[in-house]
Amino acid sequence: MPSPSIVWFRDDLRLADNPALRAAIDRGEPIIGLYVLDEESPGIRPLGGAARWWLNGSLASLAERLAERGGALVLRRGPADRVVREAVTDAAAGAVFWNRRYGGPERAVDAGLKAVLRDAGVEVASFAASLLFEPWTVTTGAGTPYAVFSPFWRACQSLPAPRAPLPEPREIAGARHPIDSDRLDDWELLPHEPDWAGGLRETWEPGEPAARRRLREFLNNDLGHYARARDEPAAGATSLLSPRLRWGEVSPHQVWHEGVATGRAGKFLSELGWREFAWHTLFHSPDLATQNLRREFDAFPWPRLRPSALEAWRRGHTGIALVDAGMRELWVTGYMHNRVRMVTASFLIKNLLIDWRLGEQWFWDTLVDADAANNPFNWQWVAGSGADAAPYFRIFNPDLQAKKFDPDGHYVRQWAPEHLSDDPPPPIVDLRESRQAALAAYDVVKRAARG
Fold first, then answer.
1. Does the UniProt entry include the keyword GTP-binding (predicted)?
2. Per residue in 88-124, pLDDT tens?
3. I want to staple 333 with a disulfide (CB 3.0 to 4.6 A). Which of 203, 218, 282, 421 is the partner?
4. Does 338 qualify as catalytic in the annotation?
């Protein structure tokens, strides 16, 4: 009697370079793909609206690709420790395979499941698939996590090179009697009343095939301009791979090896290293989205929140051209150019003096590529409370940034054209005065750190 293998898909919605799927194929028994929408386990952060939209498309693509090869994707909803155990029972499964996660709550769920299933006689194995380097393999000489990127990345590069990607399976032996599955539409991941996702549909195509196409397009057509033009939001020189990596439609190993093969991807691959740095930081600091990494920043004197200022920032009505353009791009497309992300975040924190956590929450809800590591990590970097931070000097002037990186106004003209009119909207805050207020607030932190 066959004892099927369950492949528990998580943030690895692909067939190629999927070690968990490869292990199930090598075991030689029928395979059941499983995805669990877990919004109930302790500490698990529910997905934002844009992320739910992307997940819907990526799951539909994965299910179609599995079916083409003889497999199937089972969808179930609920706390993962219960749902996975129920799936094992329903399928009389003899093995469960998954690729590792690195957030604290996720690791707790996985460790508990692994222990319970093994006690029940089920084979369980987890694999490295989402990072180039496991977080426990990259530490300082003292055995502590790195707090600065440059030595972190040098340490990574001193390790053996990332493994080669695994090939995509041509056939997947599906179970003869598949277990019950939810209908994807019943999860209601897509927005309605109102349907605000029109811009997302025009901008993106979720799924592994589109991710592979985009990687090839970038390496063949755009990589040559990357180092020179990546900071220009209108240049179209960025990879646009961040949501693909976030959902695991393409693996970092695929990106790494295909990038290395070009012989000219050094700067781009260092950005892949920054992604690694964020995940390693989350591994060692699971509360990254809620607690200052540098605890002296707990003394930062946030003024009383002005809801009208926060709302103006969210909607792109601050009267600051580059900020408004970026926030409107985000609202329409679920994406924002990285240089503009830094500028908009800096403006919220250091000109409006609004807690970085409120900005992080907005990006979590509106970005298609928001993940548990990079989103809070980058917000803390801008705030100065995180890793590799130099808070007293990093206050972006959005007007100067626009002159430097959008000198012809192409980006602003696309997203906030009224700023280029004869009667532009007035700013809601004076940049010079608010910068001085931010520096004064940071001085409070500096004095607190001295004791």
1. no
2. 999 999 999 999 999 999 999 999 999 999 999 999 9
3. 203
4. yes
> Hunting for tokens 């690694």 — which residue is that?
276
Helices 356-366 and 374-383: crossing angle, nearest 10°?
150
Domains of the chain: 1-129 (3.40.50.620), 131-164+207-284 (1.25.40.80), 295-446 (1.10.579.10)
279 catalytically annotated: no
pLDDT in tens, 409-445: 999 999 999 999 999 999 999 999 999 999 999 999 9
> Does residue 99 carry a catalytic annotation?
no
Catalytic status, residue 220: no
Phi, psi of 12 (to 5 degrees): -145, 55
Q: Name residues whose C-beta falls within 8 Å of residue 282's C-beta, 6 or more positions apart in sequence.
A: 102, 103, 104, 288, 372, 373, 376, 377
pLDDT in tens, 122-131: 999 999 999 9
SS3 label, residue 130: coil
- Specify whether 18 is catalytic: no
Pair of tokens at residue 24:
């199930």
* pTM of the model as a whole: 0.97
Instruction: Report in angstroms the alpha-carbon separations of 78 from 13, 41, 193, 415.
Output: 19, 8, 25, 40
356-366 and 307-315 helices, crossing angle to 10°: 40
Is residue 356 annotated as a catalytic residue, yes or no?
yes
Rounded to 10 deg, the angle between the 266-284 and 374-383 helix axes is 90
